[in-house]
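# step 3/5: fold
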Amino acid sequence: MQAIILAAGMGKRLKELTQNNTKCMVKVNGVTLIDRMLHQIEEQKVSRIIIVVGYEGQKLIDYISTLGIKTPIEYINNPIYDKTNNIYSLALAKDWLCKEDTLLFESDLIFEDSVLEALVSDPRDTLALVDKYESWMDGTCVKLSDDDSIEAFVPGKKFKFNEIKEYYKTVNLYKFSKHFSETHYVPFLDAYQAALGENEYYEQVFTSYYNA
């Protein structure tokens, strides 16, 4: 199993905190987000870590080189990070998705070790980590069937307040099997990006897949 981290974004909503650094170099309790995440991932004995960089990419690469990570790291540069969204960053890494089972992260996440351990050890080969929807959350939600399989992805523009009790919020942490990437996700990613462009979000690909 490998890990892919999307770390190309500019983090504009954090304003001065990301004026000269990426989001994942912001410190929480004295530790940067990427430092914490990389050490958590390394504990899972993954074969490699692929990081898609863009904004302040070389600064991030140089910083990571000081963290003592022993797992091999591959970098992919998104040169048009300011004109694209994370669907394009993930598309740049699509060949890696088809090489091995993958843990997919966005670089600004904070999670407990036990969450990642549960995702990795779960016998199901393709998973999305979700949490029960609460009013302060925004973005893509899902609806689950009785066996916890996803029956629908609900983008923000299709949010229905009368169905809130049925919603679970995606938290941008996934496990993709190699087979799922090859036969389902990457083909839909290519088609979605060709139809709607590069300034979209990778979770929207799931919406197309579930509505196909």
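# step 4/5: annotate
The chain has a mean pLDDT of 89.
# step 5/5: archive (pending)
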